[in-house]
Amino acid sequence: MLHYYLILFLGSIFVIVALDAFINIFWKKNYTLLKVGKFLGIFLLGVLMLVVTMPSLKYVVLKDYDVVNGKCIIEIDTQGRSSSANFSILNTDKKFTYDDIPDLEAYGKSIPYYCELTITKDHLVEISYKIYDEKTRKLILKSN
To answer: What's the pTM value of the predicted model, to 2 decimals?
Structure first.
């Protein structure tokens, strides 16, 4: 969730800074190809960040969430600097990725669990998860 707000904030800042720079460049009639290109790149990067985050904004602000539940398998991805947990819901073939990695060392990661995943209605932003034992439906772990 923190990543979502960070991308939204940076996209807004990039667009505002680039528009302010364009106004100053053309107001002072001091435009070079390097300056215009640099701020055009910043502007386009900010617009791209906003395009990625804006469709889910109304669901995040209004807390209009959807709960996907079912039998799932959790795979831990540790490639690169960051690691993430990939939840694969078996009966729907959907995959969701969370940055908060569940501590399932005592249970094992590759065995099936029963999961309740809270996500936005458009299924683009993951909010939280709960992991239950598949047979007893006893709560094993939930995200912060």
So the answer is: 0.71
